[in-house]
Specification:
The chain has 314 residues and is of the alpha+beta class. It folds into 2 domains: 145 residues, Beta-Lactamase (2-Layer Sandwich), CATH 3.30.450; 154 residues, 2-Layer Sandwich (Beta-Lactamase). It contains 9 helices and 11 strands. It has a 6-stranded mixed beta sheet, sandwiched between helices. It has a 5-stranded antiparallel beta sheet with strand order 3-2-6-5-4. A hairpin with a 3-residue loop joins strand 10 and strand 11. Helix 2 packs antiparallel against helix 5. The chain is globular and about 60 Å long. About 7% of the residues have low confidence. Belongs to the MON1/SAND family. InterPro entries: FUZ/MON1/HPS1_longin_2 (IPR043971), FUZ/MON1/HPS1_longin_3 (IPR043970), Mon1 (IPR004353). Plays an important role in membrane trafficking through the secretory apparatus. It holds the Pfam family Fuz_longin_2.
């Protein structure tokens, strides 16, 4: 799970109106004394609301989802359990009310009160009643079937937008590769790679919004089909993230790596971080252009893939 090293959480892709409806349902119980109300589908957030001035760190979000998903007992009945969220308060317990709405979707209500079980139970009944009258759960199931962003669907030529959006390629990318990259010479770059994966040999990407502390990653597809290949890529991302944020030698803004497994490209701005993996024969200049297209694509669909309006949970 990339959340373990990029310190952000991910949301289930949903229409903006659907996510807003889910948030409005949760807000009603948050106003009744619940510290946090979180609706999740597996490890992905559908919506969350918190009491005024309360904040929840993404690392605690990961802990919560692992806590629920790692035990089958939560699926069989409503549960009320103490839990320590170290980023929130390492010296105290919160109390988590957990109930599954369906096979993958569950509700977490957090409180500081050890005697709040019946109050939270009533809150859950109210939430389920409203959810049953809305289309939120059916839209959640449809999103699970459709999946998230696929590199094969990357728009070929997004229209240029007005405004001062950052543009990768305005500065030279540092590289750890011993080879001379094709774009270091005045020769014309090769044509975009056509084959397995997306345009220009794009295999996968992770985009992290720094302000929202949320990330989106593309779905895995060939040639990254097996869990072993996926784990190897995540480890490569983790090493890349560590080198980008190493205070001893950085931090860096851009980095380009090429080895026998991938071309890895990372770009860090004040607004976002992008990590992308390409075919090891991908052209550097074309890979840079493709990363710009990925960023524009994410910008175009941000209302569907991010929980908008959320304050930083730090």
């Amino acid at each position: 799970n990339p959340a373990t090293f990029i310190h952000a959480y991910t949301c289930l892709p949903l229409a903006y109106a659907t996510r807003q409806a889910a948030g409005a349902i949760l807000q009603d119980v948050a106003d009744s004394g619940v510290l946090f109300a979180i609706l999740m589908c597996k490890h992905k957030v559908i919506s969350l609301v918190g009491a005024q001035k309360a904040s929840l760190h993404p690392d605690d979000m990961l802990l919560l989802s692992n806590f629920v998903m790692s035990s089958e007992s939560f699926r069989t009945a409503e549960s009320f359990s103490p839990i320590c969220l170290p980023r929130y308060n390492p010296m105290a317990f919160l109390y988590a009310y957990v109930n599954f709405c369906d096979v993958d979707t569950y509700l977490i209500l957090l409180t500081t009160r050890s005697d709040a079980f019946y109050h939270l139970k009533d809150c859950r009944i109210c939430i389920e009643l409203v959810l049953s009258k809305s289309n939120v759960l059916s839209e959640v199931q449809r999103s699970m079937i459709d999946g998230g962003m696929h590199v094969e669907d990357l728009p070929l030529d997004p229209l240029p937008r007005s405004g001062s959006s950052p543009h990768l390629g305005q500065q030279r990318l540092p590289t750890d590769s011993p080879e001379r990259l094709p774009t270091d010479s005045p020769k014309r770059p090769r044509e975009p790679f056509i084959g397995i994966g997306g345009p220009a040999g794009l295999w996968h990407f992770i985009y992290r919004s720094i302000f929202l502390e949320q990330y989106v990653s593309s779905e895995f597809s060939p040639p990254l089909s097996s869990p072993r290949q996926q784990k190897r890529l995540y480890r490569a991302y983790q090493r890349l993230y560590a080198s980008m944020h190493d205070k001893g030698i950085g931090p860096h803004k851009t980095q380009f790596r090429r080895d026998e497994n991938y071309v890895l490209l990372c770009w860090v701005t004040q607004d976002f971080e992008l990590y992308a993996a390409f075919d090891p024969l991908a052209d550097k200049a074309v890979a840079i252009k493709t990363c710009n297209r990925v960023c524009q694509w994410v910008k175009d669909v941000e209302n569907e893939i991010f929980l908008q309006g959320a304050s930083p949970f730090s």
